[in-house]
Records
---
Amino acid sequence: MEIYLDANATTPVLAQAREAAVAAMAEEYGNPSSIHSTGLRARSLIDDVRARARRVLDAPTGRLLFTSGATEGIQTAVLSALVSLRDRRERGEAIPGLLLYGATEHKAVPESLRHWNALLELGLDVQAIPVGPDGRHDLAWLRERAPQAGLVCTMAANNETGIVSDIDALEQALAGSPALWLVDGVQALGKLALRLASRRIDYAPFSGHKLYAPKGIGMLYVREGAPFTPLLAGGGQESAQRSGTENMAGVAALGAVLQALEDGGTFADAATLRAWRNELGAALLEAFPALVFNAPPALALPTTLNFSVPGLSSKLLLDLFDAADVRVSGGSACSAAKAQPSYVLQAMGLPEWQTASAVRLSFGPAADDAFIAEACARIRACGRSLRDSCLVPSEPKALPPDGLTRFIVDGACCYLLADAASRRCVVVDPLPELTERLAGLLRCQRYTLAAVLDTHSHGDHASSAGELRAAVSELIDGAGPLDPLGWPLDAREIALGALRLGRLPVPGHTLDSTAYLLHDADGLRAAFVGDTVMPGALGRSDFAQSAPLAFGASLLKLAQVVGPATLLLPGHDYDDRFASNLATERRAQPLLARVLGGGLDAAGFAAAKAELERDLGLSTYSTLACGARVDVRVETASQDLTPAQLQALLAQHPDLLLVDVREPYEQRLGQAPRLDAPRVRHQAIALSQLLQALPEWLALPAPTPVVFYCRSGNRSAQAAEALRRLGHERAWSLSGGLALWRPETREAAVAA
Ligand code: PLP
């Protein structure tokens, strides 16, 4: 069962609202403008719903029109206010010069203000009203500017944090101001009484889908006497306030929701909602003891919790919750895909890590005790899963997933090489963002840290190796002297059980650039090459001290030591290629092929590089500010596979390899796709451990299909592309991931 905790983004449609919509489509399908009986019945329905809305909103007077949603309501309100200001100016009146909106307002508000301000050529000054650390408006700031404001927009409650505005205090701050006042009531509907009749609010937009009505229906209240200009002109529907044949199914469904509000019994009261939120909050704190709430609960809607967990990104938490079939959102729904910091939390002045890793959990007032209890149980299970993966503090434990793990932060790669038997490990190219996480992981898994190595010194910042060593000082093996890159001066190689690390100087990117060569019992297995080779690019040679000759010579030297298929593990990976090898790079990069073909002296190398730069255009290089980025993509046919295509592939290859690339903490919580295919070979290799398995897959017979899947299809696409690029062309990604792999799709696929 899905536990849907994203009600501030949208809600499911209430059963009685669905029934009302179906009736409006199947039986009462008339056009309310028609004067025959069918039309009259539709007119009667819309009149009834409007009357109900007026009662629920306490808006007996003024306009109350049905819209497609809040965004349309906001447009209509802003257009109305701004047209009136323009008309006054055209009549020669002096008009106020400011348009104000709360800094945490939904984007629909400031974007509409800017849009209509520009379109109507008003040139007014659009300013954000600052908010305090509690998310509430700075009333002193507003009081000072209110006399010059033509329109003030403030939300009743915030969609990300749930913070409820102090509407009475805002009203007082606006006393004596000539401003029109828009209050965005979207998140308040059914949760807070706006008392429209007794307040000076001029415009209040609402969206039905935030309270169990379908998407596509909303309402706009306009105070009697407030300026009004229709956004849509045409057939004169809605008393010419909003032309276009009415969305009767939506109106009917919204009517059913309003009736539920009026009748009581469907939605929980405020005390119950608060009790539920407390239960959820306690479950969250139990699951993630370091969690911080990003908004004071006492000031927030009782249905919203916004939190961050130190060291855990919102993407990680979303993946984790989703694996447990719990839907939450990162920051606000609209910007969740981009994983940008939340501007709402930024406006509240919260620290950067909190604004960048926020998660919002919101439920609707139609929830019940059983739902909340199940939600709490799943949240606790998520916490256990992270503890079992050593991602939140837990009892020390020795887990098996040793080997090679890659971490990536903004394109920079860090590797943890760990040996299960000896419990010794090495970190290559540590990153400051990972210090805490790595320290927790090593402590929890009882590793001894044999070395922290950098592949080169950095021009602009210090390595975080010292920071990591200090964080896990009790786990460090040996206290002997180290070279500046962290290599123990007295060691020829570093041993981790059966694994051995050696080093090879490869000056070029910097004078001290070094490759670390990883050997196992079978020989050279991989090389950590830092910035000397980047997948799809030559590597960086942008430092003054790196003469092209040194760089070219280092590439040649590397080519003499590593084989064409040895995995090269880069210091940066901007295109999710994970790893490369010289055979692939030779194919992808003509210049590398020429360098490795031998015979290019310094001048030849510089000339070839200049030629390439000219051919490719400098922008190719400037994107990364590096001297030799070639970025030639190996184009291949689509790697996406629909469930039906997977079925066709299965018919040909019943023993294909199906790989779950989700992280272990997700795999533990979630189900694998159910396939009626007994011979399929299942593997679980998290994307972060892909490097570990690449050699095995590359050694498969060429016709063997490898199909990757994950939660949404992104990580599996990366895995498929990386494997294809390295030479195994029959690699695919299950498109849409488990999110689209619903039982019915599964059955359809199996039946196909
Ligand atoms: N205002 C607030 C506070 C919201 O939360 C939303 C939706 O998230 C909107 C406005 C826009 O509503 P819609 O997308 O339904 O038009």
---
Amino acid sequence: MIDETNFYELPYIFVSNLTHMFTHKPLRRFITLGQFIIERQADFPFAKGELSRLLRDIGIAAKLVNREVTKAGLADILGDMGETNVQGEDQKKLDVYANEQFINALRSGGECMAIASEENEDLIDIDSVVSKDAKYVVCMDPLDGSSNIDVNVSIGTIFSIYRRPEHLTGPTSIEDFMQKGVDQVAAGYVIYGSSAMLVYTTGKGVNGFTLDPSIGEFCLSHPDMVMPKDGAIYSINEGNHLHFPEGVKKYVKYCQEIDKETKRPYSSRYIGSLVADFHRNLIKGGIYIYPSTLKSPKGKLRLLYECNPLAFIAEQAGGKASDGFNRILELQPTSLHQRTPLYIGSVNMVDKAEEMMRIYSAETANH
Ligand code: P6P
């Protein structure tokens, strides 16, 4: 039966069957992102497809961004825009392009009513005819780690989806975004690396899709992802060591001590791209820490569109995420771009880091 789901995949289905006819290779059942989203729609008995279409829209934008990222070294898109974004960081052209692609995809998809983006000081109101019945708001970092673009290091997109609170009516406002991470309906990231992958959760586990450029589809490659409870990798910018809280200094020293039973010393791996460090730890096990530092007393990373979505994924995969003392998903947002320290990864490693913080840095807890 041809329906909306597989109508667009007909050419692919035809080619893969043709290939099978000539190669007699077993016909692997690829599940595309679109098919997976529709098949899992049953997880939301009251949803009428809006969330599915919203995730589809994000997937479309991700493919467009990946196309530009893969040729960043060639196109004139490389190099600084010469402007700075709300974070005061050099705004690279690819940042601007990625921001525009996700905003356009969400605007035309009709399921999103407003966006909070790392690239925009204020929220972006999607006030269009197609979005008049929209019920979701999206927080996003359209291109995290963009300082790595020019040196060909993996970068990523991070997104978080909330339903508009029922008590709010009329035009969207900041209040629509002041929701705790526990209230996310979906969250995910795209990593633009040796291959492009989209990893997301809707609260029913974590699944990863790898882009097959030959057909332009994200295909299920990492079903039911589970983060190892232990790992042997720690990710932190040790250049800030002198300004770390004492508990972090003690934890880093713990990672470096020799103890065969706990596979220490751990390896230090810091890519400088949150999505890349997180993705590696999700697969291999490990911990990523961005604590408070002299330059960033509240930490550097943003609660709404970096920490909350990755914390949702981490917990859904059996991992853990805190600010050193408190569960990230329970933090009450008070502004769009607020920062928080982030300790995220394998549950036993985050537990150990929190133990060091309780013992040596209790005074720094954000009570
Ligand atoms: P630092 C990139 O700017 C980012 O937001 C994360 O992707 C990355 O992990 C971190 O900041 C790097 O920050 O201060 O170590 O260069």
---
Amino acid sequence: MNDLRELYQEVILDHSRNPRNFGRLEGANHEAQGNNPLCGDQITLFVRTEDGVVTDISFEGAGCAISTASASMMTEALKGRSIEDAQKIFEQFHGMVTGDPLRESQNAQNLGKLSVFAGVREFPVRVKCASLAWHTFKAAIEESVEPVSTE
Ligand code: ZN
């Protein structure tokens, strides 16, 4: 587990121990479940949108520090954003953690705090942990009826 130590930066530890926006959201009009069977991460995401804006967002679930911190930081990053902006942030985040060279260069500065997850691209299993909440968000917004799996 030594190679993972540098991933567990302070901000990730903080969010994994004290996840923000944790718990069921009353009045959510979008909901989706995500699973990462490789690690055992599970998440249920609740989103309330109004006039194309993410007015509130929360999550429940259990998982590793990376998946919990990623979900927590995602809810902070997306609350108050338009759905259009949220989808752009999703694309940027996904490009960063998967190391997509076409999208990588312009990403880090746009993502702010979320750039702490850039290190996961070295660890394919952890990429799934870090991106689970984001795929689940996308599914919630698109109102997919199928549960999300990273498999
Ligand atoms: Zn995980």
---
Amino acid sequence: MTDAATANAAFTPRVFSGIQPSGGLTLGNYLGAMKRFVEMQETGIETLYCMVDLHAITVWQDPAALTRNTRELAAGFIAAGLDPAKSMLFNQSQVPEHAQLGWIFNCVARMGWMGRMTQWKDKAGKHSENASLGLFGYPALMAADILVYHTTQVPVGEDQKQHLELTRDIAAKFNHDYGVEFFPITEPVIEGAATRVMSLRDGSKKMSKSDPSDMSRINMTDDADAIAKKIRKARTDPDPLPEALKDLDDRPEARNLVNIYAALAEITPQAVLDEHGGAQFGAFKPALAELAVDKLGPISAEMSRLMDDPAEIDRMLADGAARARTIAAPILKKTYEIVGMVGA
Ligand code: TYM
């Protein structure tokens, strides 16, 4: 057993993860996170999934767009296969314990730790004087999201690894400073062929909802024509697909399309090459487009059906939040007691 596994043996296994409602859902969010959330739901472990609206507002969000994006994300969760009866689905602002524990963690985390986060450096860039304080403290709130449920496992894409390491550092420092074994040392779960889905225009950049080029990403709401067009126009090299995976090491764009195919078809990247090795992109791209339309079409149709009834989405989120609070409230209360707050 790893040190973390030993330390966590006392905690009930529990899964938490979050997605920002800061724009449309991409294929990267779906393959790197959401599809895996569904798999974890089916293991029978308690699962909580959150639309992290408090994180979204660390950069400007138009209020009406935030509301719409939160509901659309909730619809995406359900359309992808999350069952609100099995998983707790809710938006972060409805469970105030996240922000309350976030404050405690603002006082545990160190400025230096935050300043080293690559997301902070990327998003604030040279204009850090003008970035919000919330953006700087973002990882402490993320640690609170996770630890307010004593979460043991967090499924995420590769880009969240550093934030999860920081979550472990915050838990360890809290436990050490107060002389307790109260917070678990959470395990990141970064697995599968699609932990880092890359831009369709540039194999060195991750696929992102904030990329200015819509051709760089597949949105979960794209129709069949848009999906086929984006895959047809995806940047590649002139060589056919190889037979062996290692021959894709220096071909990031080709590797990305093979990974996407593997994740959608639920096979390994090598199995994709067993089937398509030797094929030109002129033949492989249409096969990938057909697979993508086949897998994503039903999800996007279900999303738009669910979006027709926003009141039902809101009801479902309120129910998820109420259930989540029954776990979070006693953990926050105990945290306040440990810290020495009167009346906790
Ligand atoms: P966010 O909203 O940027 O992304 C949500 C999830 O999607 C994954 N992801 C990708 N995976 C593979 N390839 C890609 N191109 C790609 N793009 C996004 C992300 O890794 C993530 O798992 N900070 C988080 C939200 C958050 C959170 C949390 C996550 C807040 N609190 C607590 C886990 C636990 C974020 O910005 O994700």
